[in-house]
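It would be a great kindness if you could assist me with a short task in structural biology. The matter concerns a single protein, recorded as an amino acid sequence and a row of backbone structure tokens. Could you please explain, in whatever detail you think fit, how the structure tokens follow from the sequence? Thank you for your consideration; the sequence and its tokens are set out here:
___
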Amino acid sequence: MFNEFKKFAMQGNVVDLAVGIVIGAAFGAIVNSVVQDVMMPIVGVVTGGLDFSQRFALLKDGIPPGPYASIAVAKAAGASTMNYGLFLNAVVNFLIVAIALFLVVKAMNTARLAKAEAPAPPAPPAPPTTEETLLTEIRDLLKSGARS
């Protein structure tokens, strides 16, 4: 049973999947940073300084009652909040990941098609037949005999 598991685990597809998951996790961290540290501040400037990560709707007051300056303060007071700003950040994250993956897959497909459509090099010419070789020799002899 151990040998079967070892054979399964060492197949190329399983290893490729593991590598893909690890790279995907690292890519997710990069995308989160791009969204939170690059894109959302720009969106905030365009919208007049609005920080989407701290946008929420208060559903139920906590103790002490609101208004609350941030989601963390509201959660500490025991308030129920609907964090639509965090949802918006998640949607932007998804869109960035989807666009990046689309571009990667498109580039891979383009490269694969270019490789498949590359013309094969022309075949070398076939060697002359015995008859052609003999005729060539006769021609050369006639040319050399005509000059002498």
